Amino acid sequence: MRQTRQLCFRATIDGSERGRVYVCLPFDPADSWGTRGRYYVAGTINGIKFRGRLDQSGKGHFLPLGPVWRRSAGLHPGDVVDVVIVDESPPREDLASDVAAALDADPEAGRFFDALAGFYRKNYLRWIDATKRQPDIRAARIAETVKLLKAGRKQRPG
To answer: Which strands make up the sheet holding 60-64, listed edge to edge?
Structure first.
């Protein structure tokens, strides 16, 4: 069950200067944000903004830190940092009830939608929301969205 979209913690940057560098999460994102295939996040590390996607290993989820970002932030493996991390995906309960109901009715489409980056989710939702005053067109767009998501399409055809 979703607890909060923003979490704060202190962590040590793991990895090596010449290899992969990352921050291990002291929590399971599924417990905090719901189960899905991917987690897109944003936040700060020692007050410096970041955006990214969580990865997973046998030890749990972690946030990879790219070399260019680390150089500009002046951070190195072994540094202890303060992390504020926010789930960028809007929670299902924040969706319009008709959209949420359609995704709940087709779990495969719902799982695919939940795993999409916020950009793709917002594009689908904007397309649907453009029809708020036309219920028949809105229902057709919701049905089309579910069909496309079930087929694994990140976005509508041009």
So the answer is: 48-53, 40-45, 80-87, 6-15, 21-24, 60-64, 55-57
CB 84 within 8 A of CB 10: no
Tokens (6 digits) for 54 = 């969580």
Residue located via tokens 């189960």? 35
Which tokens sit at 137?
């067109």
Residue 11 main-chain phi, psi, to 5 deg: -150, 165
pTM: 0.69
Q: How far apart are CA 28 and CA 107, in angstroms?
A: 22
Distance CA 26, CA 114 (A): 22
Domain borders along the chain are: 6-87, 92-150
| Tokens 């260019």 belong to residue | 68
Count of residues in the chain: 158
Strand partners, 60: 57
pLDDT in tens, 13-44: 999 988 889 999 999 999 988 887 788 899 99
Spatial separation of the C-alpha atoms in residues 129 and 78, rounded to whole Å: 47
Instruction: Note the CATH number of domain 6-87.
Output: 2.40.30.100
